[in-house]
Amino acid sequence: MGGKYLMNPKEISECGVVLLGGTAGVGLETAAQFAEQGARVVLLGRNPERGGAACKVVRDRVPGADVGFVQVDAMDLADTVRAEQAARDRLGAIDVLVCSTGPSHPPVILRDIPIEEVKPRLDYILVPPLNMMCAILPAMRRQKGGAIINVASIAAKVATPGETAIGAAMAAITMFSQTAALEEKRNFIRINVLTPSLIANTPGAALFTTDSYSVKMWEKVASKAHLGVPEPEDIAMMTIFLAGPAARRITGQAISINGGISVG
C-alpha cells in the first residue's frame, strides 16, 4: 500500500484538503483553486462569520464546490486536535494540509518591540502551523501518505531589518517542516515549505501600509521584484503542484516565490 501511494499519490480531485488560514489572502485563493480541481475542502479559522463568507466566495467561484468551515483556535492544542477530528469526519480523510497563517504586526525594529511582546509575537506565528501539523500527522501515518505545505517567508532565509521576530518564527517553521520531512518520508508523507517575500493583495500586504518604515520597506523590496511582486494566485498554484502527483518525489524543500527579489 505504501509503495503504491508513493508511486501514485492521489489526484487533487480525490483529495480531502484542510487549510489553516484559509479564510483570506493566500489561503482563500488556494482553497478556491483546490475546489476548481474537484477537491473536498475544509477551511479552518477562528471567526465563524469570516469562515462562512470565505465558503461563499469559494462556492460563488466554483458552483457546487464541496467546502466547509471548522472553527479553531490553533494556538490551543486541545482545540486543534478537536478541529482536526471534525475536519477528518467531514472529509473522510485528510490528504493535504496547507498552513498559511502569518504575522499580525508590521515589520518593526527590535528596539521598538517591548520585551514582554517578543515571545507572544513569536508564538502567534509559530504555534498554529506546528500544532496543526502535530494534530494531523498521526492519521497521515496510519493511511501511509499525505502532503503538507506550510507558507512561511523569505525572512526564514534572509535577515531583514524589521523582521527579527518574524524571521525567527519563520525559520523555526521552515526547519521544523524540513526535519519532519526527513522523519516522515518513510510514511510517504511529503512536507514542503513556501518562503515568499512580499505578496500583493493580502492582509499581510496591508500591514506594510501602517507606518512610514513599513511603507519604505515595501517600496525598497518591491523594486527588486523585476518579475513582478507575487500575488496569491502564484502561491496557490505552487501549493497545488506540491500537493499533487507531479511532486511525488519532492519533500523537505523551501521554495521562494518572490519575483526575483532574492535567490536561494
Description:
By secondary structure, the chain is of the alpha/beta class. The protein has nine helices and seven strands. A seven-stranded parallel sheet has the order 3-2-1-4-5-6-7, sandwiched between helices. Helix 2 links the parallel strand 1 (16-20) and strand 2 (40-45). The longest helix has 29 residues, at 115-143. The chain is globular and about 50 Å long. It starts with a helix and ends in a 9-residue tail after the last strand. The model has no long low-confidence stretch (mean pLDDT 90).
Query: Which quaternary structure do these chains form?
Result: single chain
In terms of DSSP E residues, the strand content is 5-15%
Radius of gyration: 18 Å
Q: Helix fraction?
A: 40-55%
* Shape designation: globular
Q: Largest sheet, if any?
A: 7 strands, parallel
Number of helices: 9
H/E element order? HEHEHEHEHEHEHHHE
- Structure class: alpha/beta
Write down the overall mean pLDDT: 90
Biggest β-sheet: strands ordered side by side in the sheet: 3-2-1-4-5-6-7
- Contiguous low-pLDDT stretches (5 residues minimum) are none
Distance between termini?
36 Å
* Counted beta strands: 7
